[in-house]
Amino acid sequence: MAFRNWQQELIDERPPRPSPWPFIIRVAVALVIISGATCCALWAWPGYLLAKPWSRPGPAPESIALMFTGDCRGYIEPCGCTEQRWGGVARLSGLVRQINKPAATLMVDTGDMAAGNLLWQRITLEYYLKALGRLNYAAANLGTSEVTLSAADLRQLAESSPVPLVSANVLDAATGEPLVAPYRKLMIENLRVTLLGVVDPDPRKQLGEGLVVGDIDESIGQRLTELRPHTDLIVLLAACDEERMRRIAIKHPEIDVIIGGRVRQASRQVETVGSCRIVYQANTGQMLGRIDIRIRPDGIPEGASSAMMLLDNDVPEDSAMLELVEQYNGRLAMLNRTEGLASLGVETTPSPAGGNTYVGSRQCKVCHETAHATWQESQHAKAWQSLVERRRDGNPDCISCHVLGFGTGDGFRGIGVAPEKVNVQCESCHTRAGGHVRARRAELDPKIGKMPPVPQKSCENCHDYNHSPEFSYQTYWEKMKHGQDKDNKSD
Ligand code: HEC
Ligand code: HEC
Ligand code: HEC
Ligand code: HEC
User: Fold this and answer.
1) Is the CB of 374 under 6 A from ligand 4?
2) 368 CB under 6 A from ligand 1?
3) Which of 41, 366, 371, 438 could form a disulfide with 482 if both were Cys (CB 3.0 to 4.6 A apart)?
4) Is 380 in the pocket of ligand 3 (CB under 6 A)?
C-alpha cells in the first residue's frame, strides 16, 4: 500500500484476490510457442529422431568368450536317486567361478530350460532364470518347451525374468509381433555384440495358447541386414537341430556364431560353415559349453576354439546357489503341504467307478500280517522319508514313484489332501485292493475280488535305468520277498 489514512485503517479490508487468468494465459501461450518450436525443429531436422549409428568407442578386445548352457529341462539340481549327482545350477555356478575367462565374456542359454508348462514347471523355470540372473547371463533363448507356455505366461515371465529372454520368431498370434525381445544388443569391452534367438518347434509338443512360431528365415533375414553394419559379432541362439543350424548359416552369411541346443550330442569342435562358427550342446544341463573367438583390432571375428566342461562330482557346488535351490524346494513343498498337487498344476484322474479304490497298506495288516511286516521293514515303506530328507517332498517329478497312486482321485493328491498315501505301498505293486478287502471281509466266494498277479516287469515302472541302475528282479525281489515265496503260506 502506497499510503495510509486513518479512514482506511478503520475499514481494514483485505485486497481482492488477484485473478489467476493472466497467469494461465501466459503459461498456455508459452506452451504453444514451445511445442510449435519443437515441431519446427523436428521438421527442419528429422534425423534427430532416428537412431544414432552404434559405434565402437575404443579398440576391440583380443578375444571374446561365449559360455553357454542349454537343454536344462527343469533339472536345476541333479536327480538325487543314485550316487551320480551331476549338473544343477549350484555346480554351474561353482564352475563359472573356477575357470579363467577373459574380460569380454558373455553367458547365454540356448533354451529348453523348462520341463513343461505345468504350474510347478513354470515355478522351476522362474528359479532357473533367477539362478542365471545371479550368474549375469546376457540372454536366454526360448526353446521348444518354452513355446508350450501360453502367450500370457511368457509375457509375464519375460517381465519378471532377471535375464532378458530373446526370440525373433515366437510371435503373438493376435498381432504377429514378437512376444519377447527378438534380440539383445550389448557393448562389451568395446565390442558390439547382438544376441538373436530363434526356435524350431518340436512337432510333438503343442504350442502354447495365443502364440505362433514364425518362419526362421523370414524372422531374421530383414533384421540381420539392418544389424550387420553396426555389429561386430552377431550371435544366433538357435533351439534347432544340427541340419537346421547349417542351413541357417548358409542362408544368412551375416551371422558370425550359431550356438545351438535341441541336439542329441554336444559338438566336439567348432564347425565352420562359410564364415559362420557353429557349436551346440545337450544333456539336461550337465555341461557348460564355451567358444572363444579371436577378434581383429578392427572388430572382425577370426578363428575360434571350443570346449565342453562337464558339471560332474569334481566341481564344487556354490553355497549361495544351493540356498536358492533350497528356497525353490521349500516353495514347492509348501504348496504340496497346503493345497496339494492341484496347486502345483498336476491334474488328478478321477477314482474308478464301482468302489475298487486304493485303501492303503494298513487295511491289509489284519489278514496278511507277515507280508505287512516284511513291507514295513523294507525301503518301500520309507520312500517318503527319503524325499523329505532330501527336501524334495514338493517336487512332482520325485514324488511320482515314492507314493501310492500319484495324481489319482483315490491316491496321492498332496500331503495336505491325502497324507496316508505316501510311500510305496502294497497296492503300488498289487493295484487297487478295495474290492478285494470288501469281498474277503464279507467272506464271499474267493473268486470274487481276487487280486491279479504282479508282473515282474511292473517293478521297472519305477526301477528304471535312471533311478535304479542296478535293478534286477532276482536280486531285488530277494530283499523283499513275501507271500508264498516267503514261507509257503498265502501271506
Ligand atoms: C479281511 C481279510 C483280508 C484283507 C483285509 C486283505 N486280504 Fe488279501 N487275501 C485275503 C484272503 C483270505 C486271501 C486268500 C488267501 C488264500 O488264498 O490263502 C487273500 C489273498 C490276497 C492276495 C493273493 C491273490 C488273491 O486274491 O488270492 C493278494 C495279492 C492280497 N490278498 C493282497 C491284499 C492287499 C494288498 C490287501 C490290503 C490292501 C489285502 N490283501 C487285504 C484276505 C484279506
Ligand atoms: C511305485 C514305484 C515302485 C515300484 C512299482 C517298485 N518299487 Fe522298489 N522302490 C521304489 C522306491 C521309491 C524305492 C526307494 C525307497 C527309498 O529308499 O526311499 C524302492 C526300493 C526298493 C528296494 C530297496 C533297495 C535297497 O537297496 O534297499 C527293493 C529291494 C525294491 N525296491 C524292490 C522292488 C521290486 C522287486 C519291485 C517289483 C516287484 C519293486 N521294487 C517295485 C519304488 C518302487
Ligand atoms: C521313476 C521313478 C522314480 C522317480 C521319478 C524318482 N525316484 Fe527316487 N527312487 C526310485 C527307485 C526305484 C529307487 C530305489 C533305487 C535303488 O535302490 O535301486 C529310488 C531311490 C531314491 C532314494 C534313496 C537312494 C539312496 O541312496 O538312499 C532317494 C533319496 C530318492 N530316490 C530321491 C529321489 C528324488 C530326489 C527324486 C526327484 C528328483 C526321485 N527320487 C525321483 C524311483 C524314482
Ligand atoms: C514292491 C512291490 C510289492 C509290494 C510293495 C508288495 N508286494 Fe505283495 N507281492 C509282490 C510280488 C511281486 C509278489 C509275487 C508275485 C505275485 O504273486 O503276484 C507278491 C506276492 C504277494 C502275496 C502272495 C500272492 C499269492 O498269489 O499268493 C500276497 C498275499 C501279498 N503279496 C500281499 C502284499 C501285502 C499285504 C503288501 C503290503 C503290506 C504287499 N504285498 C506289498 C509285490 C509287492
Assistant:
1) no
2) yes
3) 371
4) no
Q: Is 379 in the pocket of ligand 2 (CB under 6 A)?
A: yes
Query: String of b and e for 194-208 (b: at least 16 CB within 10 Å)?
Result: bbbbbbbbbeeeebb
What does the pLDDT read at residue 11?
Answer: 54
pLDDT at position 435 over 80? yes
Section 58-87 average pLDDT: 86
Distance from the alpha carbon of residue 427 to the mean position of ligand 4, in angstroms: 9
User: What DSSP line would sit under 154-196, residue for residue?
Assistant: HHHHHHH-SS-EE-SSEEETTT-SBSSBSEEEEEETTEEEEEE
Q: What are phi and psi of 257, to 5 degrees?
A: -140, 135
Beta-carbon count within 10 A of 472 CB: 11
The residue written with cell numbers 515441431 in the block is: 39
Residue 255 is predicted with a pLDDT of 98
Domains of the chain: 63-316 (3.60.21.10), 343-479 (1.10.1130.10)
| Span 140-148, average pLDDT | 98
Measured between alpha carbons, how far is 206 from 413 in angstroms, rounded to an integer?
26
Q: Is the pLDDT of residue 199 over 90?
A: yes
Which atom of ligand 1 lies at the shortest distance from residue 490's CA? 18
Span 154-159, average pLDDT: 97
Q: What is the CA radius of gyration of the chain?
A: 33
| Cα–Cα nearest to 171, from 110, 217, 223, 214 | 214
Cell numbers placing 164: 532378458
pTM, full prediction: 0.84
